[in-house]
Please model this.
Amino acid sequence: MNRFTVKAFGTEAPEADLKQMNIERREVTAKDVEIDILYCGVCHSDLHTARNEWHGTVYPNVPGHEIIGRITKVGKDVTKFKVGDLAGVGCMVDSCRECESCREGLEQYCEKGNIQTYNGHEKYLDQQTFGGYSERVVVDQDFVLHIPANLDLAATAPLLCAGITTYSPLKHWNVGPGQKVGIVGIGGLGHMGVKLAKAMGAHVVVITTSAAKIDDAKRLGADEVILSTDEAQMKSNAGTLHFILDCVSASHNINAYLKLLKRDGSLTLVGAPEHPLPVAPFSLIPMRKSFAGSMIGGIRETQEMLDFCGEHNITSDVEMIRIQDINKAYERLLKGDVKYRFVIDMASLKK
Ligand code: NAP
Ligand code: ZN
Ligand code: ZN
Model:
């Protein structure tokens, strides 16, 4: 297999800073496209993985799974894209394509394990996959998305993870008009959850630990805001929500949020904190409540989400950074100090 070298930003160890390094990519095979990366969003999962908080990180690790770029090369059997097209890549670059989940278009739940954009297994080169904090990426066309022409490119990058991760559970749990939906944690995922739930017609209630985000939450589309650190507000809103999407990246008391659900309501976790979240049986039993999880979304649904965002003119609120500022950005992410997604201008790596 022919390979080529590209510049990237990655880390050699859990406690090490990210720094510039060279990585190898495969040359395009028959169904691959090569993408020159223009923008890459910074997801909290990048930080969890770079620091081995979920265990199993293979080093060196190059994060980045909110990738927008332009196609520079296509394999001989590529039909979906041509050179010069805009393209997006999210959290997966392949899956088995044969199992029940894959056949249903739910590649994220591939029973043999989907191949993640970074820290997955690059079968052609027998090495770990490397993500979007890099100059170029080579991906099978079936895992590459079309980008709506009317959206700002940098602000569209976060849709590839934060967008689909919130869109998919909102659809699965039938969020829409007549429903009161809580979004917990207004970071990259949460702020997209607010915009998407609102566009789906729901009454949106933001639940935040940050008093400083209350005005913003309303600007993003929230109908109401609950400050979760204020016990009186949590108590007066008990039993009011049909559905809650929990987008929190750190340990928190899930039982306090379950109290906000109505009878038969569901709380779905997309946030993936490092440590277990203890659930009291009587947080669920008396009102037949459900506690669930959801992972990103399939390729077909990711395209549906991008088209939905194109129609409704929805993008992420972004703060642009240079790749050289990624370590500072991670520290700010840990403090909840981002409005609401860092996006790397990848031109900074090419200089
Ligand atoms: P983020 O931008 O850092 O946002 C996390 C938000 O959580 C913060 O802005 C804060 O919101 C809230 N928060 C932080 N610490 C808290 C605490 N101790 N108690 C209560 N709330 C707290 O992160 P992100 O990129 O949106 O990612 C969120 C989580 O989703 C991460 O764990 C990430 O790995 C995970 N994720 C999962 C999937 C999936 O497929 N399931 C996909 C992508 C990401 P407030 O200031 O509003 O309280
Ligand atoms: Zn992500
Ligand atoms: Zn599969």
Observations:
- Residues 162-293 form a domain with the Rossmann fold fold (CATH 3.40.50.720).
- The radius of gyration is 20 Å.
- The longest strand covers residues 32-41.
